[in-house]
Design a protein that fits this description.
Helices cover 20% and strands 39% of the residues. By secondary structure, it is an alpha+beta fold. It has two domains: 103 residues, Lipocalin (Beta Barrel), CATH 2.40.128.640; 102 residues, Lipocalin (Beta Barrel). The strands form two sheets. Strands 9, 10, 11, 12, 13, 14, 15, 16 and 17 form a nine-stranded antiparallel β-sheet that branches. An eight-stranded antiparallel barrel has the order 1-2-3-4-5-6-7-8. The longest helix is centred in the first third of the chain and has 31 residues. It comes from Pseudalgibacter alginicilyticus. Pfam families: META (PF03724), NlpE (PF04170). This is DUF306 domain-containing protein.
């Protein structure tokens, strides 16, 4: 009786081992036939490992025009802006805004405008996908790749568009950080100003020796706020064509856009 029980237990054990091996082989075969699964690493997805936020540009093929000049800006808060110009038809700029979501694989994004295609997010690139969600192939494939616009903090003219959370409508106000002699200069909406700056680790910045001309203007509010902020700033941040000057981890003191 004990001998029969021992034999029965041995048979059951062999069957379980065989099933586990078969299941393992099935999983391995499935992964081997799925290139996305083979490369999937949730800790190293585009969402987690790339500096994906920023501005991307391309001229997308168009059926009845010379091309669609497309600009997409992705923000850290999962919002986006898109600008499109139909070249050869008119100069009108079509602007759309919304939010986007990352797909489960952390590699693709879907825009809130359901009429828009999905995009695969690569290193400094956005790949427009076809209606089936696949990468576009063929001799025009490169035309559907939007390239990230890399704008440097220094030697770029930054136009002031918001200060202390309030929109600024002034074409004169700007700032520029020139690498030559670490010279900072600009216009505070009324007067020109100048000074020095020093960049430190972690996007930290120190401004010093600030001075400005003394012309009187009808409205000095923006100027006063601008100059006051420059004395407080200790760090900056970049996102596409946008730059902010900040104090510690507070909300941005001033927001600028790059002037092309």
């Amino acid at each position: 009786m004990n001998k029969m029980a021992l034999q029965l237990g041995l048979i059951v054990s062999l069957l379980i081992t065989s099933c586990n091996l078969n299941n393992k082989k099935t999983i391995e075969d499935s992964l081997g036939n799925n290139p996305k699964a083979e490369s999937l690493d949730l800790e190293h997805t585009s969402e987690q490992s790339l500096d994906w936020y920023g501005t991307y540009k391309a001229i997308i093929p168009c059926a009845d025009c010379e091309g669609i000049k497309t600009t997409i800006t992705l923000h850290k808060d999962a919002t986006y802006e898109m600008e499109e110009v139909y070249l050869g038809k008119n100069d009108k700029v079509f602007i759309s805004q919304g939010t986007f979501k990352w797909r489960a694989d952390g590699q693709e994004i879907t825009l809130s405008d359901t009429d828009r295609p999905n995009y695969f997010v690569g290193e400094n690139t956005l790949f427009q996908l076809d209606v089936s969600g696949n990468k576009i192939t063929g001799h025009l494939a490169d035309k559907y790749t939007l390239v990230k616009n890399s704008i440097a903090f220094t030697n770029t003219k930054w136009k002031l568009v918001k200060i202390m959370g309030q929109e600024v409508d002034n074409e004169k106000a700007f700032i520029l950080f020139a690498t030559e002699e670490n010279h900072v200069f600009g216009n505070n909406s009324c007067n020109n100003f100048t000074g020095s700056f020093e960049l430190k680790e972690g996007n930290r910045i120190v401004l010093s020796k600030l001075a400005s001309t003394m012309m009187a203007c009808p409205n000095m509010e923006i100027e006063n706020q601008f100059m006051s902020i420059l004395k407080k700033v200790d760090n900056f941040s970049l996102s596409g064509n946008q730059m902010t000057l900040n104090k510690a981890r507070m909300a941005p003191l001033a927001v600028f856009v790059a002037v092309e």
